[in-house]
# Entry
Amino acid sequence: MLELPHWQRRLDAELGPPRPGHFRLTPDDFLVDEVLDFAPEGHGEHLWLNIEKRNLTTLEVVKLLSQRCGVSPRDVGYSGMKDRIAVTRQWLSVHLPGKEAPEGLMKGLAEGGVTVLAHVRHPRKLKRGVHRYNRFQLRLGGEAVAADDFETRWQALCQAGVPNYVGPQRFGPSGRNLQRAEALLARGWRKRDDRHGILLSTARSFLFNELLSDRLKKNQWHQPLDGDTLMLEGTHSVFSVDQVDDTLRARADALDLHPTGPLWGVGRTSQQAAGEFETALHNRYPALCEGLLHSGVRRSQRALRMCLSEPSLTRDAQSVVLSFGLPRGSFATAVVSELLTTADQGGADAIN
# Structure
């Protein structure tokens, strides 16, 4: 049975492991704001709601909204799943063609712990992954933030990027999602056993983190290798390279592009030096890799590195408040893990 390892941190080789600390002691210590790059049009069959939630998963809000509106959860759209132990703002949509919002909807949502900040009509359902980025504000405390090297660590992350690990939220408390994914893939994945695809995502995320950790150990995570697929900063546009030249290396140094790793599935595998990491990964976890191929999920790419946008740090008597933006799909917990050592506190994707 698979267990979550301690994946390689970027700053350990230079500064040693971070000191103990804490974050997310209360939801108000972890604020997330989902930012779209467009505005709803003000008319159409779908009611879009910008909501604020705390101590709720996105799927719990989807269920609550579908019940209050008398529709199937399939008629409720969202762009990303947000953390449970947090105060998070995000958009959701509900399909209400030719209908007004049910009377008392806002009050009913508020009774369930959801505040509606704005609501507007739009012609289309909100699809997964359409938001531009997430803005975070985190309060950190403990021995780590008082350490002499804390701001050195923070500046290193701001200047040269952060390993783009999938956060512990994806794997559930004590890694139980990973163990469930392993068992499901062993007997053959079926959608009815994994309706939202969370267990597929868990298995793919585990393999991605393993490959990223392997490349970090060899200090080959931030510079492209022959055979790599590269992603342009600020987009999800990718292109493959057979041979790396000085121009590509300079663009990587300037954070203009990033090497990627596979979210395992059906599709072309990498070749040459980049492909050697994938071959080693398959050899280490053949059942997981083959189970994903048999599920039919399509391979995609995820950047090995993420950049912090508009980062800032402020201090008070006993804590530090960090503010920064991350691309959609990236985890603030991956930033925190470079700054302090703490127990996994679970989050959005945990299946209880």
Summary: DSSP finds eleven helices and 15 strands in the chain. The chain has two domains: 1-31+139-352, 38-122.
